[in-house]
Amino acid sequence: MNQGCKRVPSTFPFSKILKRAGLTRKRRTRPKRYRRSFLVPRPGEVLQVDIQYVPYLVEGRRLYPYTAIDCCTRLRIVQFSQEMANHVSKAFIPYALSAFPFPVRIVQTDNDTPFTPWYTAASKTPLDRPRKSHPLIPPRTPRLNGKVERSHQTDEEELYRLRHYPTRRDLGQAFARWLWHYNHTRLPMGVGGKTPIQVRQGFPEYAHMKQLRCHPC
Predict the structure, then answer these.
(1) Core-most of 4, 53, 71, 210, by most CB within 10 Å?
(2) Are 185 and 196 in contact (CB under 8 A)?
(3) How far apart are the C-alpha atoms of 178 and 198, rounded to whole Å?
(4) Could you read off the pLDDT of 173-203 as tens digits, one per residue?
(5) pTM of the full structure
(6) Residues 135-157: what's their mean pLDDT?
(7) Domain parsing of the chain, residue ranges
(8) What is the C-alpha to C-alpha distance for residues 72 and 198, in angstroms, rounded to an integer?
(9) What is the DSSP string of 167-192?
(10) How far is CA 140 from CA 47, 111, 131, in A?
(11) Taking the CB of residue 176, how many other CB atoms lie within 10 A of it?
(12) What pLDDT, on a 0 to 100 scale, did the predictor assign at position 33?
């Protein structure tokens, strides 16, 4: 077959001829699914928790910001760690729950190994036993953790890209100032043009409660 042919001809001219003759099928395109952000009516109803990493090394090491964000007010708690591990997650969750000025009903995370053993060889909770108040989003659906994911993007755009901090102390001080700005003065688009503190003050029972901790390191 194809004896005497020095070069294999391109398929483009043939496909073009078939298309003109109406002998090709149009490829079906799936309709786009538009993401709908869910509304959380009260503070503490859902707390999204996730882990990011500082996009550059600090003192020669990788740093991992653990972030918890209240889906109603967008108030955030952040704490840095030098490792991304299950025992760090277990310590961060109580820290975040004690720092927020209102009780938290649900803590939501993704399926990463610091939060769940379901995709590792570790021992697992039986399926018939409830996982209490820690729901996991379906695998490969980071959009369902969209509020905490978006806050990580904001950190990248408005802090990390502006300057590299050489030491953990420098980064911790800068991030503390940035986190205070995020919670108190920065006007986000997703909560009606109000700061997270202003949204919290809209609930009279939480208006005068303790301030958030802003010491990530």
Answers:
(1) 71
(2) no
(3) 17
(4) 999 999 999 999 998 766 778 999 999 989 9
(5) 0.73
(6) 81
(7) 47-206
(8) 12
(9) SHHHHHHHHHHHHHHHHHT---TTTT
(10) 19, 9, 20
(11) 16
(12) 52
